Structures are given as C-alpha cells and as structure tokens.
Amino acid sequence: MKALKGYLKMKAPTIILMVLCALCFLVLNWLYDYPLDAILYSILLCSVFVIFIGVFDFVKFKSFTQSLENLKTKISIGIDGLPEPKDMVTNDYTELLKILWRAKQESDYEISYRYKDLVDYYTIWAHQIKTPIQAMRLLLQTSEEDTNDLELELLRIEQYVDMVLTFLKLDSNSNDLAISRVGVDKIIKAALKKNSKLFIAKKISLKYEACEIETLTDEKWLQFAIEQILSNSLKYTNPGGTITIKRATDNSIFISDTGIGIREEDLPRVFERGFTGYNGREDKKATGIGLYLCHEVLKKIGHGITIESEVSLGTTVTIKFDRENLDTRD
C-alpha cells in the first residue's frame, strides 16, 4: 500500500494530464456530434492500454523501491547493492551518491589513521610513565623522612594513568578481556589495599563484610571499577566519615559512604562522559570521567551499576553481577 501511494503521488501530474486529455476528447467529439458508443469505446480502449502499462511500470517501481529499502540496512558497509537507475535523473542521483560515498571513505580512512596514531602515542606514554612512577615509589620506600603526602600524590598519578589506559582500550577495537571465574572478595581486598593510605590520611573508617560471591568477570577491569568507586567515596567523604562495603543480594554488592551526596537532579546524568554536576563544579579538578569509565567497563564485562544518593547523607553504589548473562561465557 505504501509503494502504491508513493507511485500514484509520483505519477499524479501524468494522471491529471491523461484525465484532461480524455475530457477534451469527449468535449470535442460531443461538439462534432460523434456517436457516444464510439467515443466511450475509444476511451475504454485507451484506458486498458494505460492500465496495462501502469501495472508494468508499478511493478518495476516497487522492485526499485524494495531494493532501496533493503540497502538501508547495509548502506554503512557499502553501496554495491544500489539498483540500476531507470532514467537520467535517477542516474544523476546515483552518481552523486557514489561521489559522496567515496569522499566518506577517504574521510573515514584519514580519521581512523590519525586516531590510531593518537591511541598508539598515548598507550606508549601511559606504559612508559609507569617506569618513573615505580622508581619514585622505590625511592619513597627507602626514604627515612615522612613521605605520606608524596605517596598519596603518587597514588593519584597512578590512578590517572590507569584511567587513560582504560579510556583508550574502551574506545579501541582491541579485545583486552580475560574472563574467568573469580571471587569478588579477592578483588575488593586488592582495591582496598591500594587505597589504604587514603583511608588513613583522611581518617575514614571502613565497615567491610565478606562478599562471598563468585562470578565470571575480568579481574583487572572489575578491580579498576571498584577502585574508581572507592576513589570517589574517599574524595567526597569528609574526615571521620565511614565507607561500608557488603553483599546486598545473592549477586550484588554495594559500596556506601557518609559523604556529601549527589543532588537529585544530577543523578540521572552521573554516568555521562564529562558530566561533573554540582559537586564537580565546586571541585574545579573534577573531570567527569571516573563514573563514566566505571559504567562502560562494567557494561563491557556484563555487570550493572546503579547509584542512590541524598545530599549530606551519602551515596550508595550497587554493582550487580548478572549471572544469567555471564554464564553464557562458560
């Protein structure tokens, strides 16, 4: 029906012209007093020819439009399936489309080439900078002076480097996943150990209950996500506050804090890239990347994340390990 409506709309000027010609034919024959039977027979005969040609033309039109509909699903891959043009105008449009497609391919290749160079550069940079970081850490460990502040700053540098590497891996086509069945407790403890100095420095107490959950996951990426959540909790929890980690349900854990909380209007957007919200505007150093990376990393390894928060009361982040989705990786 859609094809028929489109065809009639396209042929409307021709149909109107034919009707006008038929009316002129009737009027002229009536003026010259020709027999009515002869006039009607002539009109009927012409109509049969018109209908026959119209049906044949409509079949070709429908086949042409169907080819275009099928091409919509794969136009991003190539335009080899374009139907043969039926007339000069269609041929011109086809040539224009081919010119645009070639220009797009050249542009995509150039962008892809430049992006690959950029990714390669920052990947090398992120790996190379780890060498002086490790050297500084060794020097701090052998120093007899109080180096707590320097160690905390070094920890932040390491976290930023990890964020760069994770960001690059998320946006690249490489598959860096190593899925295996891992105990969640093991990953949480590793993340807590890495952030232990921040707990001590800010005098923040930890309430931790064993989360005896085994799940299929990528250990490195899950630890990164948990570290980012802990980093946010430590950042926005005032000295003397508390961070709680425990099992929420059979297949989820939550990390809650007694920090400054997140405004209700900001909650729907906390996982958007670059969104900092009210707290981020107050803290000029916020980038809006941490929670975005958390969300994308967890989604990539088949886990879910939600956030609940109240201003001045704190924030609760829930990580859900979806067994149904993950079990398909066995």
The biggest beta sheet reads: 5 strands, mixed
Helix-strand pattern, N to C? HHHHHEHHEEHEEHHEEH
Number of strands: 7
Q: In terms of structural class, how would the helical and strand content be classed?
A: alpha+beta
| Unreliable residue runs | 324-330
Overall number of structural domains: 3
Radius of gyration: 34 Å
Using the coordinates shown, work out and report the CATH topology of the largest domain. Heat Shock Protein 90
Strand fraction: 5-15%
Our count of helices gives: 11
Query: Mean of the pLDDT scores?
Result: 82
Tertiary shape: elongated
The H-level CATH homologous superfamily of the largest domain, spelled out, is Histidine kinase-like ATPase, C-terminal domain
Class of the largest domain in CATH? Alpha Beta
User: Any idea what the CATH architecture of the largest domain is?
Assistant: 2-Layer Sandwich
Distance N to C terminus: 48 Å
Strand order of the largest sheet: 2-4-5-7-6
